[in-house]
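re: that chain from earlier
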Amino acid sequence: MSDLDKMTKAQLESHARTLGVELDRRETRAKLITQLKRIVSSAPVEIIEEDEVESPTEQSPLESKKETTEAEVSAAKQAVKDARRMAERAVESHIQAVNMADILTKRAAAAQRLADDATRKVEVLLEAVSTAKEAAVKQSDRLELMVTGNT
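^ sequence. v structure.
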């Protein structure tokens, strides 16, 4: 396991900057490591004399805080973008729901009109059956009178 595999995304980004490379921290940690390994393996090797090596200096707390703040700002900006996308999707879903509700309301109204029309037709048919029944009873009574009166 190389040293890169042990680093966090922030450490990988910081290390890449020392090599003059800017990484996109939105990428996965594995992709950042792969990118850095490619850069390191393709970079020309430079021999440095011992007296040219500078002693390492510790990063001041202020610089560390600045990097943290930049990372927080970057994360906040990404969170805002994500929130906007989510809000846009929510608005689209709401519009679709309103449109679907409108369609269903129209269909329900049409179904109610058909039911009302069918009810009126059934009432007309029942009235016609009742009238026909009354006419049949009257005809039956007349026939019975004719048969009993002629016998």
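The radius of gyration is 44 Å.
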